[in-house]
Amino acid sequence: MELAQRLQRIPPYPFREIAALKSKMIAEGKEPIDFGIGDPDMPTPGFVIDALYEAANDPETHPYDESGFGIPEYKEAVASFAKRRFGVDVDPDGEIQSCIGSKEALVHIIWAYIDPSDVVLVPDPAYSVYKVQTTWCGGAPFPMPLTMDNGFLPDLDAIPRSVAKAAKLMFLNYPNNPTGAVAPLEYYEKAVAFAKEYELLIVNDCAYSEVAYDGYTPCSILQVDGAKDVAIEMHSLSKTFNMTGWRVGWAMGGAEYVEALSKCKSNVDSGTFMAIQRAAIGALNRFEEWVPEMQGEYQARRDALIDGLNSLGWELEKPKAAFYVWLPVPPGYTSESFATALLRDCMVLAIPGAVYGEFGEGFVRMSLTLKGDDKVGQIQQAIANMKANLDLSW
Ligand SMILES: Cc1ncc(COP(=O)(O)O)c(C=O)c1O
């Protein structure tokens, strides 16, 4: 059966191919040190599992969530988190929508607003969903380059006026996947002013808002006065609480945009399992005690990887947030050839930066999430393999 044209227009989901390559190596008895997919390797905290157990034993959680936006207690817990964490007031009644992970919300906000030919401003490199779903809807993604020179923050002044005027949506994502960059509040202030001038909606992807180091606290775009007029922000429990498989998150922002998302969702899915929403309340309520432990674990790995790479000749700063190292490839390599050399000669799996867009060329992404025991030991082994087997002529 021939696929629909819209599905033919998009490439396969990139990680499916990388996962297949890894499986092939394992079948051949060669298990690489896997810095590939950014999927937390630690278990969900016990107190969240306990909350799920209790909730799942209550038959009231078993039917459809007919509330549409999420159960009131979940939206209250989200509003309380937003106040405690970012100091922002979000109305549980109309400004919050529970989501089946933030990916689902990112997809549906595009379906809510984008018609064929509509322009969407998309960072490049970026998480694939923004561009792919825009294309899927027949829209026109316009790349905003993230480069070392601009600190991996889109240069809003470089966007042609005609493009900015035509654009309906702009995606931002900080802490950033794949570059590990962060956005200061002043950047969000500028972005909100830009969105007001050109009458577009900012979708701020905050999936990594709690994965941060050295006491740095990433901000929310909603901390900018008047941001709700032009912004919706996507959050997730996936990375914060090691809950990627649970599929739970939320959108918060201007009521008009939350309503549009809700209309879209209500015609596609039937909400998040209510027991999972209750477990998510258990997670958010104990956020303050849990998060330092999670951050400390990744920080130790970040330090081991950056210190090791710098000992090989790189001059990298330590990323302040997210669990990615965005590594410039040494002279003479492309992102693809360097990732291949890492895998073939060093048993190190990293993702070629070009997977994330044209401006990802010249980099590979290394995720600090690692399966197996002794993560720091694995990182040190990877560095030793690179030292022994790579020709690094700087
Ligand atoms: C930038 C970014 N946004 C959103 C997501 C989606 O996360 P989830 O759907 O698990 O909340 C991911 C997952 O890797 C991501 O990297």
Mean pLDDT: 95
Helix/strand/pairing category: alpha/beta
Tell me the quaternary state.
Answer: single chain
CATH topology assignment of the largest domain: Aspartate Aminotransferase, domain 2
Number of E strands: 12
Spatial gap, N to C terminus:
51 Å
CATH architecture of the largest domain: 3-Layer(aba) Sandwich
Largest sheet: 7 strands, mixed
Spatial extent as radius of gyration: 21 Å
Helix content: 40-55%
Percentage of residues in strands = 5-15%
| Total of domains | 2
What does this structure look like?
The chain has 394 residues and is an alpha/beta fold. The chain has 2 domains: 5-44 and 289-388, Alpha-Beta Complex (Aspartate Aminotransferase, domain 1); 46-287, Aspartate Aminotransferase, domain 2 (3-Layer(aba) Sandwich). The chain has 13 helices and 12 strands. The protein has a 7-stranded mixed sheet, sandwiched between helices. It has a 3-stranded antiparallel sheet with strand order 9-12-11. It has a two-stranded parallel sheet with strand order 1-10. Helix 6 (129-136) links the parallel strand 3 (119-124) and strand 4 (140-145). Helix 5 runs parallel beside helix 6 (129-136). The longest helix has 25 residues, at 287-311. The radius of gyration is 21 Å and the shape is globular. The structure holds pyridoxal-5'-phosphate (PLP). The site of pyridoxal-5'-phosphate (PLP) has 13 residues, from helix 5.
